[in-house]
């Protein structure tokens, strides 16, 4: 029986520190199997911590006849591969602890689920160290999902998550996070950092004077392999939990380690994810041999209920062959990089991947609350038993300044009564507060920042960051949907900074052909390429000397150029294309994007996390126009003034009914769309010598009134309708984009997102 097995591991990339060890463990299990049966051909593919690459490599191997896969360390990679497993009916041995919330019929999960690892760590540190917890993780599925469960679990035990921080996948800069830890003085840190972030965090932790004696770090991830990567002195005293530790002194483990070290020709540390890889591979291969079949269903059926003696005790595969029941230990790292076992469950803990659901119940509740929050006059806050905010509507956040996860004391709840009419409803495990501003409460005064004016509390907070940015030379990242005014804010920052007498140069990376971006930014010398100007040309970096460079649509920057841009930002020097001279540049960068860069870093691999980090020294998010209806009237007034200057006398105002419609419309194209609507209406009303009325609005906006009652709950539907309508009424995508007041690239993205056919 000859059989191909696909090994999907990141031999390079952010999590390669850990996955190389898993790859060796899988190879070892296959080599032991082949010593007796010589039937397995292992085909390894480097997935480089990249979900898209994982799916592509898995599909190529599946087409080549591979039925069994081993690997996919990160949850993002595992989830990306699931559709391939389904399509070709393959089996994945997933040998890594994970966040649970999944029980896929094509996966044999040999790592620990949260109730076998995370809950145990929490019980331990709450008992020994305290209940004030600081969560730090990378920004992707595993840390976020795990932390949702940590919050629920700890709040049920009167613990308090005092901070929850996420850094980009691969981030290695922790100065600011550790300063924050020093300031907030938690009892413990719970870390779900992975890959290169792990050594960077632990090292900086010690270097900045924190120690496990004062605030220990508990992490389900940081094991022997990661401790070796950081240097044992940095890991010593911190904790982890798993079924397996290299230091287990039973004969099965000693024999395993000896054989493994002989195989790998060295004394590399062995960690639980490695042992789980070895074990999973061995169990599946042995089952195949017994059955003389590769059929996924048969293998899983055969494995279901099996017991086996292993280096970490007697394990049992659950009835459907997907998870393991296992004993669990807690280890405290020693100065030699091994773990001292400080707690042992002694008996098996059954896997309960859905023990704490972050989806079903809470999501349904959230959906109900969300919908209610949108239509209700009142602001809504839902508290857990111990007063932690589990949900608050946008209105509630605006009125109170509270955030999800804040804990409200009885006194704070009492104080709300002074400012609001409060209706309080206490049910089992939940406390619901409905707030109505007291009549006569003054509206928030307008805040001005350059050309920007806003009454919106959230936007005012963001503009505080813009003010700080104006007084510093730090790089700034402006986030916000298309047309929200990112360029206007960038301009205001420049004009209010010390650089106001220098140039402000804008580059829209999304609009420049990819092969010309480098020469646009960095310039070139004569003869560098066909069509190059005589005498060469300077690029935007040099043109912005002593001023500000505004990089719009930074999310569209190709990966290879991101490396060059990062270097220029770090060294403050550039080299013109075709030149060898380095030139110093003294500029401040403001970048903007309407894309979700952390998500693209984690799942899409289209943006470098180090560049993101460099740009994101100060960041501010401009709320979409639909979230600040209180600003619409003021914006219209300004626009009418400007239009009067350009076109001469015209209507002074929008009539009441029309204004109401403008305030309620969801504005997918934000201020740009509002501007287009007002300009058109101004000209039409002017020709009729009257105020602006609904008749002066385009059909998609007028039509909004008739459909309003149904639409209130679904802004996406409104947006989709507006786009479909604009496409029907125009001859090209470009024309439709103009009509909607959004960029063509944004319209293409939305067409794809909504599945509209053109
Ligand atoms: N505060 C404001 N007052 C009046 N007009 C504004 C304001 N902010 C933005 N605008 C107008 O809205 C339009 C879009 O603004 P801007 O180009 O700054 O948005 P953006 O977020 O950078 O858009 P994109 O993401 O598409 O590049 C412009 O016509 C601008 O003049």
TrEMBL record:
Keywords on record: ATP-binding, DNA-binding, Nucleotide-binding, Transcription, Transcription regulation
Every Sigma-54 factor interaction domain range: 452-683
Xref: InterPro entries: AAA+_ATPase, AAA_lid_NorR, Homeodomain-like_sf, HTH_Fis, P-loop_NTPase, Peripla_BP_I, Sigma_54_int, Sigma_54_int_dom_ATP-bd_1
Superkingdom of origin: Bacteria
UniProt keyword annotation of Protease present: no
Classification via PANTHER family: C4-DICARBOXYLATE TRANSPORT TRANSCRIPTIONAL REGULATORY PROTEIN DCTD (PTHR32071:SF57), TRANSCRIPTIONAL REGULATORY PROTEIN (PTHR32071)
Protein name: Sigma-54 factor interaction domain-containing protein
Organism: Siminovitchia fordii
Lineage of the species this protein comes from: Bacteria, Bacillati, Bacillota, Bacilli, Bacillales
